[in-house]
Structures are given as structure tokens and as C-alpha cells.
UniProtKB/TrEMBL annotation:
It comes from the Bacteria. Residues 1-107 form the FAD-binding FR-type domain. It comes from Pandoraea capi. PROSITE patterns: 2FE2S_FER_1 (PS00197), 2FE2S_FER_2 (PS51085), FAD_FR (PS51384). Keywords: 2Fe-2S, Flavoprotein, FMN, Iron, Iron-sulfur, Metal-binding, Oxidoreductase. InterPro entries: 2Fe-2S_ferredoxin-like_sf, 2Fe-2S_ferredoxin-type, 2Fe2S_fd_BS, Beta-grasp_dom_sf, DmmA-like_N, FAD-bd_FR_type, FNR_nucleotide-bd, MRET. This is Ferredoxin. Residues 236-321 form the 2Fe-2S ferredoxin-type domain.
Length: 321
């Protein structure tokens, strides 16, 4: 579990769009007067009464530490997270949340930024857009949804003004937006961000490659659909540098489960390679990355890994644990 959970109370539940509600969380009276500050793109974990842990992006302005606001889609394929929240959350209830983490950081100093949101992926993108508008930066945003009725936070986006384009598939014979057209002719050094369903992220990465945008940032909602199972096919040995312990990870077991079973207090949350809570520094060896958090360059560096789903390409790893 996270070492530094916070106590939060649900102050507001609000309808935002078809299937989407926002949740405003405030510190529980007496536990703290403010939440930790966060940066655009950050998310927090909700620890649900069922024991499930789910991560959601923060929507509100980063300067606000008196509250956290999340936007949550009642996913029809929900495995007990978003559906549970929609059906069971009530104003006044309390729950544990994690401190904010950010694996989708905004380069605030970029000369030019393009933001692309698909569906509920608008949550971190709105937070980024809000920040860039406040800083007076050059930014444009494309927000895609199947229908206008499924687009959340449109009033907030319109209130921020600037260069926002909406694409609702229903108004284009069901066709998605052309990301290559939107991303064409951007100035050199542009940073491009996308949060949305996997098919959109794949199209976005392809469009960035096609249009010559090198600074590409994406965030997935859930584990990549083609991610292989987390279990390892071969066993290996992990050395914990701080204690000098060697621990054997048997074939078929995950690294995190093995460490927890050995009594190691390894921080974790989602157990699916999505939230980033279990990020661990790698001191030696070659990880077999299976997460949906690290960028391609972070993976290639092999300096960190998500121990809940990733394994080892060789027979030995040394971790900063
Ligand atoms: S516990 Fe969430 S990424 Fe590992």
C-alpha cells in the first residue's frame, strides 16, 4: 500500500456529461487543512471500501490544495471501480486516497503545446490546458467524444477561452478526427500530449511520427490491452541493495508478490502497471517492462521499473530497495 495515504471526504458529486460525474474531495476535518500540491497531469488513487484501488486524474487547478476534483466515467466494462463509485459514492462519505503522483508531466516552459483528449481523457488535459492558459502559453486543444452529450467539462473549457476544437463523431458520420490534420505544421519544439482510449493513443503516436513531432507524451487509462501477463516464464534472483538480501522470484510469480511474501514493505497500489506507485530504481540488470506508465525513453534507460507487472530479462536484478 501507499505509505502516505490521506483521509478525504466527498463534498460534491456532480453530473458532468452522460455517464460522467465529477467528485470533489476535501480533507477530513481534523486530519489536515490542505492536501499536498500537485502538478498538471497528476493522478491520485482512491482506496475503495471493497479493497480495490483505482487511479484518477486531477482536473482542478494545481494551485488548489483545499480540494481535489476528479472526473469519473461509469465504464460499462468496469471491474468494480468506476461503476462502484457511480452507484455507491455519497456526499459526506470518507475514504483514503493517495498523495498525487505524476507520470504525465507537463513541460510548462514549452514554446508551443498541443493537447488531444479522447472521452474521459479530458481530465488531465483540462488541467494542463488550464495551467498553460494561466501562464499565457501558446496552446491548442482538440477534444474528441462520440457525442456532444458525452463531452464533460465543456463549460469550463469554454470559460478558459483560447484555441479549443471539438470533434464529436456523431456529427461526422461516426468518423473520428484526423489527428494528422490537427497536428500538421506545428512549430519546431512543439510538445504534444494525448490522453484517451488505446486506439486513439496509437493513432496519435502514428500522427506525431507522420508530422515530425518528437516531444510526444501519452497517458493510458488502463493496462495496454496487448500487455502480456505479468507473471514471468523463467525464475530469476533479485538483490535488494539496501539490505543485501537475495530473493528468488519463481517462474509464474510477480516480482511484487514475491517481495511482499518475503516481508518486504514495497509500496504499491493498482497492481496493474498503471498507477506508478511501485516505481523502483534499478541498479543492475535488465528489466522486462510490462507497465503502461513509463515512456519509451524511460524504458530504454532501464533505470526504473514497475515491480507489480514487470520482470527480468536475464537471471538477476538489483533494486534500490
Ligand atoms: S502498483 Fe500501480 S504501477 Fe505498480
Amino acid at each position: 500500500m501507499s505509505k502516505s495515504n490521506l483521509s478525504a471526504m466527498v463534498r460534491t458529486l456532480r453530473f458532468e456529461a452522460a455517464g460522467i460525474m465529477s467528485i470533489e474531495l476535501v480533507p477530513v476535518a481534523g486530519s489536515a487543512t490542505a492536501f499536498p500540491a500537485f502538478t498538471p497531469g497528476a493522478h491520485i488513487d482512491l482506496h475503495l471500501p471493497s479493497g480495490l484501488v483505482r487511479s484518477y486524474s486531477l482536473v482542478n487547478a494545481p494551485g488548489e490544495t483545499n480540494r481535489y476534483v476528479l472526473g469519473i466515467l461509469a465504464d460499462p466494462k468496469s471491474r468494480g471501480g468506476s461503476r462502484f463509485i457511480h452507484d455507491n459514492f455519497r456526499v459526506g462519505m470518507t475514504l483514503d486516497i493517495s498523495e498525487p503522483r505524476n507520470h504525465f508531466e507537463l513541460m510548462e516552459s514549452a514554446e508551443h503545446t498541443v493537447l488531444v483528449a479522447g472521452g474521459i481523457g479530458v481530465t488531465p488535459i483540462l488541467c494542463m490546458y488550464r495551467r498553460l492558459r494561466a501562464l499565457g502559453r501558446n496552446v491548442k486543444l482538440l477534444y474528441c467524444a462520440r457525442t456532444a452529450s458525452q463531452a464533460a467539462f465543456v463549460d469550463e473549457l469554454n470559460a478558459l477561452g483560447g484555441d479549443v476544437t471539438y470533434h464529436f463523431d456523431e456529427q461526422h458520420d461516426g468518423k473520428p478526427a484526423s489527428l494528422a490534420a490537427f497536428l500538421a505544421d506545428q512549430p519546431a519544439g512543439t510538445h504534444a500530449y494525448c490522453c484517451g482510449p488505446g486506439v486513439m493513443l496509437d493513432a496519435f503516436e502514428a500522427a506525431c511520427a507522420e508530422t515530425g513531432i518528437a516531444n510526444v507524451h501519452i497517458e493510458r487509462f488502463a493496462a495496454a490491452p496487448d500487455a502480456p501477463p505479468p507473471a514471468t516464464s523463467e525464475g530469476y534472483v533479485v538483490t535488494l541493495a539496501k539490505s543485501g538480501k537475495d530473493i528468488a522470484v519463481p517462474a509464474g510469480a510477480t516480482l511484487l508478490d514475491t517481495l511482499l511474501a518475503a516481508g518486504i514493505d514495497a509500496e504499491h497500489s493498482c497492481m496493474e502497471g498503471v498507477c506508478g506507485a511501485c516505481e523502483t530504481r534499478v541498479l543492475d540488470g535488465c528489466p522486462d517492462h510490462r507497465d503502461s506508465v513509463l515512456s519509451a525513453s524511460e524504458r530504454a534507460s532501464n533505470k526504473v521499473m514497475m515491480i507489480c507487472v514487470s520482470g527480468c530479462k536475464g537471471d538477476r536484478l538489483t533494486l534500490d530497495l
